[in-house]
Amino acid sequence: MGQTLAEKIISEHVNRKVTAGETVLTPVDLCLLQDGTAPLAIRQISKLGLEKVFNPKRVVFFIDHASPSPRKELSNDHAFIREFAKKTGAQLSDIGGGISHQVINEFYVNPGDILIGADSHTCTGGALCAFATGMGSSDVAIGMALGKTWFRIPETYRIVVKGEFPFGVYAKDLILYLIGIIGADGATYKALEFCGDTIEKMPMHDRLTLSNMAVESGAKVGLIAADKTTRKFLQKMGRGNKYREIRPDSDAVYERVIEIDVSKLEPQISFPHTVDNTKPLSQANGTRIQQVFLGTCTNGRLEDLEIFYNIIKGKKRNPQTRVIITPASRTIYMQAAERGYLTEFVRFGAEVLMPGCGPCVGVHGGIPSDGENILSTMNRNFKGRMGNPESFIYLASPAVCAATALKGEVADPREFLPRAKHTKRSPARKSATSKSKAKSKGSKTKKIKKRKR
Fold first, then answer.
1. Model-level pTM?
2. How would residue 444 be classed by pLDDT, with cut points 50, 70 and 90?
3. Which of 82, 92, 270, 409 lies 20 to 30 angstroms, CA to CA, from 37?
4. CA–CA distance from 30 to each of 49, 68, 85, 222, 356 (Å)?
5. Pairing mode, if any, of strands 114-117 and 30-34?
6. C-beta atoms surrounding 248 within 10 Å
7. Which of these, 62, 68, 114, lies nearest to 92 by C-alpha position?
8. For the chain, which domains are there?
9. Cα–Cα distance between 246 and 224 in angstroms, integer?
10. What is the mean pLDDT of the segment spanning 312-318?
């Protein structure tokens, strides 16, 4: 009987063949902690009398959530993290370095790794075919001290994606649509395994978007096979020697199979206050938006900034709509500056913040006022997510955010996108105007009988 990607990666680490449902004690390759969760983890291992980390080169601390610190209490936490990293030799990405889930994949994650992080969006690393998952601070504390942890091996949902993206439709639209199908807790503690001809042709920045949001359906990991796209990314980042091909077996057993034809999708939008409250963009057109936010570990990459740039270049933002832009890492910030994107954003009337989480977690950088509507490329729109429970957060792609920044209300990017930049995309097809109709046309799902134990 064949294995899924999750089963294969964990089997390699425990030196025996494992199957979904088993509980194992396994070595870990990499640990991630950020400024909101690291202080508790550090205090936990101190209570146990543990003073070292298992591998200083593979334990990475990030100061990204409150970067730079807006309050003295957070400043003290930052100093505490810096001191621990200095004492143990662990890696530290300080203020301005960027968001943990972007930077860890730029410089540390390799195919076949087991990465545990004290942050739920650690699952972003699944785009590089790493078993990357978020855990509680106490669990990650033990992992960073001892280099091992325990898992129940998850069952897997196979997400088969086919077709060409229509003009103006992106990976963000795909993952919002998928979460709408599965539900916010429909894949709790499952592995999502993305495959199909669309995924095989998908560039790494879009794969990272898919894996990043896997947890929004409750999933443990969001995995994509390591292939030539993975190799190209690793070579670009200076560690091509870490590439190895990892694919699921053809006879692997899946709990559920979901098939999606992206050629039938239109731009999607997630309504307040849950990510799975997704609908076609046409159902939100005209909704007044007071603040647009482009960035985060979901859509703060160079290609996302480029999409926004191509739409707003030479134009001015709607004077009634604020625009905040936060590149996901220092590397991306510098690349965007070199290409002139940042200058154009400022001329457009946007506020460009330093690399980090920015307003996403509601600590600083753009907390909305009561009753305001925000359109964001974030991965979550829970009530109070951006620091004010009396505001309303909508989620969409960078293209939708750019079009909205121009009009001051939710707008279709296909009105503004230069078609010359999208010659490889199929023309937009007429899509369903209701969620239920879109589902019936765009996807189908199969229940697969579980293997016998």
1. 0.90
2. low
3. 270
4. 22, 25, 15, 17, 21
5. parallel
6. 20
7. 62
8. 1-22+153-265+423-453 (3.40.1060.10), 24-152 (3.30.499.10), 268-422 (3.30.499.10)
9. 9
10. 96
